[in-house]
Design a protein that fits this description.
single chain; 184 residues; alpha/beta; four-stranded mixed beta sheet; 5 helices; 7 strands; extended
Amino acid sequence: MDNVEDLTSFMKKILGYKSKRWEYENETRIICPQFGKIEYDYRAVKSIYFGFKMQKEEENKIMEKLQGRGINYYKIKLKKNSYKFYSEPVEDLYPTDKKYLYSIAEVMPCAMKDINTKNPYIQKAIEIVRREPYCNSIINTKENTNSIEVYYFKEHPTTLKQEYTYKEIDKLYNNITDLDSEKT
């Protein structure tokens, strides 16, 4: 390799290649330019497959570390008298009703005017976003023809926007379990 760019390109090709016979796995590989811990939205991880040689103690440590995230676990097994693999569901040893990173963010005074609007979908959208794991405070809303935008701080001054259609708001709002019994 003549330079770092050629080496990087070569490594991406090697790490990104997967045999066609494993295509059914629908695996997504993420290659990052740096080593170490990488920040990501924890909800992106839906399932974890433990390799067939992984020790039970290591599996248990992973489950304990990731509790409350709603992850499904599977163990890769080797079919008897064969070289074929299959997966079996693994019981989560640390089930909990407690959600990971769950909190209810404050609504800033500048956004309080939006709560008192005649459109109940604005209030519902605010309640949904207040429960987003990375929301620290609601700062503003915007009503569109078919949707509501809610602006919030992740870490000041990082402002993020979440946009929901009215149909999405109905669905997500009805899934909130910690509101007073009088849902509007």
